[in-house]
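USER:
Class, as today's exercise, take the chain set out below, and explain how the chain folds.
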Amino acid sequence: MTTDASVRAARRPGEQALTALGLGAPALDPADASAHSFPGGGKWRTEIPSCEGPEALAVVLKESSRLDVPIHRISQGSGVWMLTDAEITEMVEATDERDIELCLFTGPRGTWDIGGSVRSDSRGAGLRARGHDAVAGCVEDAVRATELGVKCLLVADEGVLWTLHRARQAGIIPADTTLKVSALVGPVNPASYSVFEHLGADSVNVPSDLTLDHLTEIRRVSGAPMDMYIEAPDDLGGYIRMYEVAELIRRGAPIYLKFGLSKAPGIYPWGTHLRDVTLDTARERVRRGRLALDLLARHGADGDMAPLGSRLPGSLNRFPIEGAAG
């Protein structure tokens, strides 16, 4: 994405006016900037989350064309098991036609399980897969989805992540399948971020309340792509960080800018009884993306977008797999 603004030096929000009033901020420290980028070039990609079926996908694609919002990835949150083979195939074909990566969530997950601890004040194990059968369900979803052409899987459990990484190394699922860590289990420090990378994550969703300094700390130990809600759903805090987008890119690259939506009803697990709100919120997420991209353009910081159609994460650090060749 290149505009006349992007060839000028980037500026911070309100910079000229505040400087004229004697309220200018200190110069940015180059040491804070991420040294990493996506393979093939670019510092940022875009993602539209919570696209729960073919009809919502059609709305997102139509609105992205109308508002000229570039999309690298579209993700779904209810799970592979909530879609029929025909629905998955329709979504795969529609995204392939636009060269957009489609990411579906593997299930089951702890928050929908019969375990009571997740409903306690401590939230127990959260979304993690409880027991062998839950892991097996996630693997079943992964195999089914990839056989239907899905190339990205969303996971919310470290064991499932490691298992699916081993599965692609063994050829059980395609080797170019990408694995994305859910915001609901996202790491909050550089050590844990690095662990997710080593377990097989190709992009890691961090909580949207991490500070800019936290992003810099992460980037000093890992170059694995980061996902971050620019506007988070209410159940993830409802944070809105649009005016920080340029600095999030500078500190967190390579980064997926996720255009979520606060003040919206939860729609997981999705069904036709939630049709109207699902389509309305899908449309508004794209509009939120346009607003964020407009801010980047006004600040002269909309350069360095990764090429549309790019999806792979580049070379990452992994734990060795026992018995694997090499």
